[in-house]
Specification:
about 140 residues; about 0% strand
Length: about 140
């Protein structure tokens, strides 16, 4: 569990650590060692790469790109603690921006909500700080 906090290689190390212990156990075959590595690998990849991002996006209402950028930003500022707190901090900022009635706050909220611009099916104009609260640009 704790190895998953180390990016990229932590889960790999956590999967490989039990393999020598199983190999050195009397009466165990190579099939047992293979299963010792394969089963956690499949469980981790299924949960960590497929199910978890979908649940996080649905529950937190954050775009996956926003989560990655937040992880990078807060991690560069506060290190590991920033990485752990990056998603809750970003969710809090997003919720606060949602309640503020200001064009710039609305623009910041839209950037967090839709980091790539507009949704595919949407015909809205591109995001800009000058756009009004309703999404229509001023033509005065």
């Amino acid at each position: 569990f704790f190895m998953n906090f180390i990016p990229n290689i932590g889960s790999f190390i956590a999967i490989l650590i039990p393999a020598p212990l199983v190999y050195l156990t009397p009466g165990k075959k190579l099939d047992d060692v293979f299963l010792t590595v394969l089963v956690p690998f499949l469980v981790h990849n299924t949960l960590g790469c497929i199910l978890e991002p979908q649940l996080m996006q649905a529950g937190l209402d954050l775009h996956p790109l926003t989560v990655v950028v937040a992880l990078t930003f807060w991690g560069s500022i506060w290190g590991i603690a920033g990485m752990i707190l990056s998603v809750p901090i970003t969710c809090g900022i997003r919720l606060a921006l949602q309640e503020i009635d200001d064009p710039f706050a609305r623009w910041c909220f839209d950037v967090l909500d839709r980091p790539l611009g507009r949704h595919k099916a949407s015909k809205e104009p591109p995001l800009s700080p000058d756009s009004s609260q309703s999404g229509h640009s001023n033509t005065d």
